[in-house]
Design goal:
413 residues; Spore Coat Polysaccharide Biosynthesis Protein SpsA, Chain A; 17 helices; two-stranded antiparallel sheet; single chain; alpha/beta; 47% helix
């Protein structure tokens, strides 16, 4: 696998010290101007020990055009991390101090910072000829004391899965009432969105938070490593595994992301919290009927191999008008023809055509459909409807966001 590092690594080796022979996992933490980084590192350092050594690699990174105060801040953090690394040098959970990485303005962002850290983890595992676990965490998160032990045990037991999405609960204990409700609304949206996908049988229904996933080193390399996107890098990366059936799910809430406001990226938690706080209208989420329309059509297509071979038109399968228009505008006819041409039977066809209905296409369809008969709905209404659909009996029909969120978490959607 050395060819991956030779062809695709962004930079050279960052850590001079050889890895310990019993290295089990590496936690990568990208950090740009992160005031809470030390809290996040301490949270991981205080985890229960595991069988083997776990290393933490914070990747301090900043754009080339950063102001002097930002540069100084990162140098100070590097000095603090260096002291911390020395203090934990012989512990089972250790930390490496890497000097701040200055990135070209056009490339600087969480995707590249995450990639640099994950590639360094690959180097260390390759030195040992090990297929170790690369864990992604964020500098505004804390974790459960059993975070490492539960995650490593899961990966050891679930050998089919090459990557895993880890359970989470946003923190709001230190937030004001308005910001607290905003992060609760956003998490309710995340859970309702994936919950409806699971309810309708979508095979790629996974949460994709950058702070909440892990991947095996060799699988990471086989899929070309982390992308350099400045936002959404986690979504695109994890769904490389979901569409191949190798993404697992550890539902236990082990990671506690921050509910802070942020303007760094055009979407995601921080942006959503800001928008909720500055919008007078009720917070809305995708229409469950639009989700159903997409997944139901996908299911019908998967099961129509023989009919398509006999000349059935994809237009003949029952679907919403918005779905039909979306299929036409996105050249589904050509994709269907290729799938039929390159499939040896029903199973291979179903597997091949399913990938056309991948998660990014679902999201694009939902944006398309909201103007064509499936407007977004109030997030409370969606959550209540989802709970009823799953037969949750003790349903509190109040508008209390925290109550609904607690119920939907308990139902493991």
């Amino acid at each position: 696998m050395q060819s991956y590092l030779q062809k695709q690594a962004y930079c050279d080796k960052l850590i001079s010290a050889d890895p310990p022979r019993n290295l089990a996992a590496i936690v990568v933490i990208p950090a740009f101007n992160e005031a809470e980084l030390s809290k996040s590192i301490d949270s991981v350092l205080n985890c229960e020990p595991v069988n083997g050594v776990v290393e933490i690699i914070p990747i301090l990174n900043l754009p080339q055009s950063s102001a002097p105060d930002i540069v100084d801040f990162h140098e100070q953090q590097y000095a603090l991390i260096s002291k911390l690394a020395e203090a934990h040098r012989f512990n089972s959970i250790r930390i490496h101090a890497v000097p701040p990485v200055v990135l070209p303005d056009k490339l600087a962002g969480v995707g590249l910072a995450r990639k640099i850290g994950m590639d360094e983890a690959v180097r260390r595992f390759e030195f040992l000829y090990k297929n170790g676990i690369i864990i992604n965490f964020d500098a505004d998160c804390t974790c459960h004391r059993n975070y490492l032990s539960e995650l490593i045990a899961y990966m050891d037991q679930q050998m089919l899965y090459q990557a895993v999405s880890i359970g989470f609960e946003h923190r709001w204990d230190s937030l004001g009432d308005l910001q607290k409700e905003a992060i609760q609304l956003y998490e309710l949206h995340l859970r309702a969105y994936i919950g409806w996908q699971k309810y309708y049988g979508y095979p790629y229904a996974f949460q994709t938070l950058g702070s909440c996933f892990a991947v095996r080193s060799k699988a990471y390399q086989e899929q070309g490593g982390m992308n350099r996107r400045k936002a959404g890098e986690d979504f695109y990366f994890l769904h490389k595994y979901s569409i191949h059936g190798t993404l697992g799910e550890l539902n236990m809430p082990l990671v506690y992301p921050s509910g802070r406001i942020s303007h760094r990226v055009p979407f995601g938690t921080g942006k959503a919290v800001y928008d909720i706080l500055h919008t007078a209208t009720p917070y809305k989420t995708y229409n469950p009927e639009a989700i159903r329309s997409f997944i139901q059509y996908m299911s019908e297509v998967r099961n129509s191999y023989d009919q398509f071979r006999q000349g059935l038109s994809f237009h003949a399968i029952e679907s919403s008008e918005s779905m039909k228009l979306y299929l036409d505008q996105n050249e589904f006819k050509d994709a269907l023809g290729l799938a039929l041409q390159n499939s040896s039977g029903e199973f291979s066809f179903a597997n091949r055509i399913s990938k056309w209905f991948e998660p990014f296409r679902l999201m694009k369809y939902l944006h398309f459909a909201r103007e064509r008969g499936f407007p977004d709905v109030d997030v409370h209404d969606s959550a209540q409807h989802l709970l009823r659909s799953h037969g949750v009996n003790k349903l509190d029909l109040s508008r209390a966001t925290e109550t609904l969120l607690g119920q939907i978490r308990q139902a493991s959607f």
